[in-house]
Amino acid sequence: MYSYKELAIFLSALSFCSTLASAAFKVESAGLPVIAASPYGQINSPNIAFNLPDSSEATAQWVTNKTSAFNPKKVPNTGKTVKYDFTIARGIGSPDGFQKPMMLINSQFPGPLIEANWGDWIEVTVHNNITGPVEGTSLHWHGLLQKETPWMDGIPSVTQCPIAPNSTFTYRFRASSFGSSWYHSHYSAQYADGLLGPMIIHGPSQLPYDIDLGPVILSDWYHDNYRDLIEGVESLDETKWGPGSQGNLVNGIGQYDCSLVTDGTPCKKVPYAKFRFTAGKTHRLRLLNSGAEGFEYFSIDGHVMTVIANDFIPVVPYNTTVVTLGIGQRTDVLVHAHGNSTDSFWMRANMSAICSRTDNPNVPAAIYYDDADSTKDPRSEAWDFVDHGRCNNDPLEMTVPYFPTTPPKHPAVTQTLNINKTVNATGHQEWQVNGRAFRGNYNHPILLLAHEKNYTYPGDPQWNVYNFGKNSSVRLVINNDSPDETLLSHPMHLHGHDFWVVAEGEGRWDGKTIVNPKNPLRRDTVMLRRAGYVVIEFETDNPGIWPFHCHIAFHVSEGLYINVMEQPEKIRQMEIPRVMKKTCDAWNEYSSNNIVDQIDSGLKHRQFRQW
């Protein structure tokens, strides 16, 4: 534990220690294995099979069942555990043709698909083999509620200590929701270097479909390593900010113009990501934005998409030609292949030039019908589309949950969160929530301290804990007050919950307007538009410490993050497995003998040697 005096000394060392360690940090690329092309987005990639649930409550394939026949809050007990074994290490990859060191899971980018049935238990054993240099790590299971296992959420400084170098940790959690999502490192911005992968939880569908094409992963892509990117965006020196991402990827495949390379880095043209359509069949595509900063628009030339889910929430189906995806958001769509068997079409992932910073916002992928010549590029025309620059999702009136729920008419507590950007005492840019930027402590996870009945914390206010106590429901009013020169949108993600989105718009909320009060939109990640607001509500039915943060990797690195504490007395009663303490013991031993350079907030990295 730190005294306030020790904490002040600790903070005053930030500039010196960060500069010293940064100068020493260099990724050692010599001898790293070169990875193969992405396993996704290949013309011969197998379709996702329709799994059968191992539960007496459902006897047919999930795809033949109606969502309305199931209560999403009543998770089936399948009695089944699916297991995965992940090794995290560095490697060399060329997702867009430009070769760079990456951080990989099982030498694969994107990482292996995690697949389970609704109600299964999932076990993932993670080996931290990162070297050249060594780093801690963790994995977070985006959108899963962790109601039975809040300590398995994978957040260093909050739910666990990092997995120490040369250590192993096994996550075990319930597939308590169904639909499409992803997992990623929550240690610093490691996922921007490749530590991520898709996740599919099979469950009922409100509409039938014939073919599941699986994940369609959209992501901006950077040629610099994540640490250099973070130090650049935190700097006041605009020359270090860089031009933004170098491009866009679909399923880990992009198109960089190798003629721009001037330093001799190997670069080669990469084939487009390719998908197969069967004429007359309905295809399910599981769209997700796994980027670090980019706001994505997705479309398929000549094809209308039917939206059936946002995040893990099935919605009343509606048609669209363009899907918007902020970072961390997922949208499941059905597409009817109405073309001829020899047709081909472009699939387009376009980052907003207004809502994102990028050199090359557009990347195509190709869809070939069964008898089309996949060696020839499609010649289809894009839909007419204008980027309005508001950086928000579809109107709340359009996105209605299929399984209706009604929020409390009068939430037990309302908390306003004002987001702004400033420069701290050490000359670094930071994002603040109500005047405070988050900064974590890897050696003392907040959940474990709360379990010991420590609800005040020596590091407060930097830990940004909002203790909502026994209140049964919470309303958060979030205002985007970022200054004009940094007028940006924020994809706001809440762990441990999906939440009702009851209002959003430009300026300030009037305090009265509620959209669809009897069944408002629910999801776990929502876009906070530029110079706007969003109002969300949730019931405090999941005791724990739950991060609420912007999912732009660099914004969370700069402190745009709070912790929601709910039902602290029930946290005290939890039976937290001893392995969580052992993980901290291993990390504390490592960090006591090594300076761990924490260059940002701690969810995206700011740790020093333990005093």
Question: Characteristics of this structure?
Answer:
six-stranded mixed beta sheet, Immunoglobulin-like, 7 helices, mainly beta, single chain, 611 residues, disordered C terminus
Largest sheet: 6 strands, mixed
Fraction of residues in helices? under 10%
* Uncertain spans: 1-25, 52-61, 602-611
Sheet-strand content, in percent, reads 25-35%
CATH architecture of one domain: Sandwich
Q: What is the C-level CATH assignment of one domain?
A: Mainly Beta
Q: Report the CATH superfamily of one domain.
A: Cupredoxins -  blue copper proteins
Number of strands: 30
**Class inferred from helices and paired strands:** mainly beta
**Total helix count?**
7
Summed over residues and divided by their number, the pLDDT gives a mean of 87
User: CATH fold name of one domain, please?
Assistant: Immunoglobulin-like
Shape: globular
State the end-to-end distance: 9 Å
- Please state how the strands of the largest beta sheet are arranged side by side: 10-9-12-17-14-15
Could you tell me the radius of gyration in angstroms? 23 Å
Oligomer: single chain
Describe the overall structure:
The chain is mainly beta and 611 residues long. The chain has a domain of 180 residues: Cupredoxins -  blue copper proteins (Immunoglobulin-like, Sandwich), CATH 2.60.40. Helix content is 10%, strand content 32%. It has seven helices and 30 strands. Strand 14 and strand 15 form a beta hairpin. The longest helix is centred in the C-terminal third of the chain and has 16 residues.
Concise synopsis of the structure shown:
The chain has 611 residues and is mainly beta. It contains seven helices and 30 strands.
